[in-house]
């Protein structure tokens, strides 16, 4: 615990960085993966189980929480951490991304966004000021600036216009943020895949002196190659002594590649969502446990994994749970996937520490390419 | 652990009995409640969580398991206990009850029942011999005889005919059972609400010298009064030194009343099913957590309960999870309900030990009648 929010850079290996983010609610070893706790729960997991996988911070969604149970209610119940019994820091997004992807009848103006709830059709207005206020009511350890996530593809003109709106909103977001010891706010770099726009965006944000910086507008359909090349020209522009967060990313290979391009923090629904749809991440690539090839297989899902699903159950049992649509199947696969992601981040941190990240990444690619173990004869 | 399956009668208090069932896979303190693990999982619970509530034995359903994943598959994977990682005894039902309630196109003959699977329409034939074989393949610690659960209401003639078929099947079931050290088989008393038929049934079963006896054909719509009066004339006929199991029962008040009428073991889907539909059992009666009155309530569900849902979360949070249809809501409420049931059984056992069960039951009724705590002003 600390009363100063700060990023400590411990070691570099190429562009990759080993560090620590110190916050009012605990320390985060980076590079870090943040499980997504959309509606005040990491789906199908108890918070102590999330913690046991190695997660040190989780993400909450402003859009979902403002609709249910509402920010005012969470505040009255002691903030999001107490409400959901998460004993650690929480980062909340600004709501902007989900308003554009989930809400109905959206209308975007200079002031903000008006929309209808996807739950009950009620009308809401979200502005930079209101987004920051909601995140304050949630008592988020890390508050995100309110921005527009530029869709992909966008012309240079569209991307510039969208980015400049986000930068005006970033200024209003920064003004609305109430600084508190150990709490921080991150600005979000936009500009699509255009180097000049990313540069303009970073410069605009630097002037606001955020506690951290996110790269937004990626993982929206541009593909891994475009994402990596955008990171390659964007992260060198970003402050060295602030954490860098790549929003909404991603697959295991995306994480490895983005760390090698200077990213410190990630969030993604992939491990949890996949855990509810029979998809498992393993050291030998993804495995679909719904496939009948697993029905008699007494072997663990991933022999090198320490999670309960791998230590205590066979592939045959997991397959059975999935075929019967049993909740325990979702619980075990979600736990496994989160464990896999945290193990991957731990491996990455160890490799940076020892200056052998390139070797780690080569071995990772090789293992993933091997594919799943052969079926039993 | 023991190599002899036996019931140890420790103390009586009126008709109520404190005892222990010793089995190859562990000891069961009675009166005991067995959570239902239909398809090789107590729904929404990890087995270690089930155990932590105090459960010493769980129930598996032959009908569900013979369809998915099949008994032969479970046997090849080391039996049901290993398959689902339950470290304790398991009782399996015979499949008869669920064939009649779930399967399609049922045809009952002297030989057994032919039916179509409710899952995929496949045809199956279940006989006393096949039911016992399936339960053997599952490696059930306690095997149930194959019977017909007489529907309610039934005329004396219908009940007699049905009971006598079950008694012929009981004889075939007993012959088919492979005795193994520490394993047991229970016969099932039928006869609806008719005293002469229940007596005839008990006598027929006594001749077969089962390791335990169940009362079947109750909790099928006859109401608590008829169930209790049937128990009152049935249990005195049953062997003193064998466990007595009331199948498919029931609500908390049913358990208390049935123990006072000489029952040792129970199973019911009520705590688990209710846990998935927002219904909680508490020391002050049932609580529907979907009700909006809980939306701002910071108090625990049941202040006297030791489960995670009550120690770590507010009613407001549980209500929120339920409204958002979050899996964690089902996990927490199921855990609470199972904890409540096990706490109730522990209380009952303590009361019998101290010879104050009548006082315990009066206090139980009083507490239940108080109703839920008043809403906050």
TrEMBL record, chains A, B:
Pfam families linked: TGT (PF01702)
Protein residues bound to Zn(2+): 305, 307, 310, 336
Entry binding sites for substrate: 93-97, 147, 190, 217
EC numbers, comma separated: 2.4.2.29
GO CC annotation: cytosol
Catalytic activity annotation: 7-aminomethyl-7-carbaguanine + guanosine(34) in tRNA = 7-aminomethyl-7-carbaguanosine(34) in tRNA + guanine
Pathway stated in the Swiss-Prot or TrEMBL entry: tRNA modification; tRNA-queuosine biosynthesis
Gene Ontology terms, MF aspect: metal ion binding; tRNA-guanosine(34) queuine transglycosylase activity
Cofactor(s) listed: Zn(2+)
Active site as annotated: 93 (proton acceptor), 267 (nucleophile)
tRNA-guanine(15) transglycosylase-like domain span: 15-367
Enzyme kind, highest EC tier: transferase
Any single GO BP term: tRNA queuosine(34) biosynthetic process
Top-level taxon in the UniProt lineage: Bacteria
Residues spanning the membrane: none
Keywords for this protein: Glycosyltransferase, Metal-binding, Queuosine biosynthesis, Transferase, tRNA processing, Zinc
PANTHER family assigned to the protein according to its UniProt record, in alphabetical order: QUEUINE TRNA-RIBOSYLTRANSFERASE (PTHR46499:SF1)
Self-association and partners: Homodimer. Within each dimer, one monomer is responsible for RNA recognition and catalysis, while the other monomer binds to the replacement base PreQ1.
Name assigned to this protein: Queuine tRNA-ribosyltransferase
Gene: tgt
């Amino acid at each position: 615990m600390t009363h100063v929010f700060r990023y400590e850079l411990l070691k570099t290996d190429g562009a990759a960085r080993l560090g620590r983010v110190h916050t009012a609610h605990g320390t985060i070893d980076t590079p870090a993966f943040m499980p997504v706790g959309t509606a005040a729960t990491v789906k199908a997991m108890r918070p102590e189980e999330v913690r046991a996988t190695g997660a040190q911070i989780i993400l909450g969604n402003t859009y979902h929480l403002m609709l249910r149970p509402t920010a005012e209610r969470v505040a009255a119940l002691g903030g999001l951490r107490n409400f959901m019994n998460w004993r650690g820091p929480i980062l909340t997004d600004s709501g902007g991304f989900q308003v554009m992807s989930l809400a109905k009848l959206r209308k975007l103006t200079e002031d903000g966004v008006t929309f209808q709830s996807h739950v009950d059709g009620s009308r809401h207005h979200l502005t930079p000021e209101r987004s920051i206020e909601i995140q304050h009511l949630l008592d988020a350890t890390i508050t995100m600036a309110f921005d527009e996530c530029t869709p992909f593809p966008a012309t240079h003109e569209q991307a510039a216009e969208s980015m400049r709106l986000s930068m005006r909103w970033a200024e209003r977001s920064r003004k609305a943020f109430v600084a508190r010891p150990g709490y921080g706010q991150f600005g979000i770099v936009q500009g699509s895949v255009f180097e000049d726009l990313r540069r303009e965006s970073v410069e605009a944000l630097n002037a606001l002196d955020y506690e951290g910086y996110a790269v937004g507008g990626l993982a929206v359909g541009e593909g891994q190659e475009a994402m990596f090349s955008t990171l390659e020209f964007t992260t060198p522009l970003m402050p060295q002594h602030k954490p860098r967060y790549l929003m909404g990313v991603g697959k295991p290979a995306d994480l490895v590649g983005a760390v090698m391009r200077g990213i410190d923090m990630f969030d993604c629904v992939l491990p949890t969502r996949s855990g509810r749809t029979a998809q498992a991440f393993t050291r030998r690539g993804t495995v679909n446990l719904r496939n009948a090839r697993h029905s008699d297989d007494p072997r663990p899902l991933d022999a090198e994994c320490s999670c309960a699903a791998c230590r205590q159950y066979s592939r045959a049992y997991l397959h059975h749970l999935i075929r019967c649509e049993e909740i325990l199947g979702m619980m075990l696969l979600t736990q496994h996937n989160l464990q896999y992601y945290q193990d991957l981040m731990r491996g990455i941190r160890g490799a940076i520490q020892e200056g052998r990240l390139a070797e780690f990444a080569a071995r990772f690619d090789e293992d993933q390419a091997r594919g799943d173990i052969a079926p039993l004869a």
